[in-house]
Amino acid sequence: MKIIILSAIWCPACLIVKSTIHKIQKEYPQFQPYFIDIDEEETLASQYEPLKVLPVFIIEDEEGNIVKRMSGELSKEVILKEFVHV
Description:
With 86 residues, this protein is of the alpha+beta class. It has helices at residues 12-27, 42-46, 76-84; strands at 2-7, 34-37, 56-60, 66-71.
């Protein structure tokens, strides 16, 4: 499984989520999501059809199929439940 997070530097919720992700990584170093900045990597981000609400969390299976998608300022508890413990 691959976890992708679409974000932007100007997005306050994205900055909060990045901080939360760093805290989670201290507890779960195996949790290594791949961040894509929708402005800096526009072509790559467009492949994931970013939503108007950032950040966007995506789980891909081994074949690159999207199996889960959530967006918004998710709490640490939700991130752990939905993306770390999958």
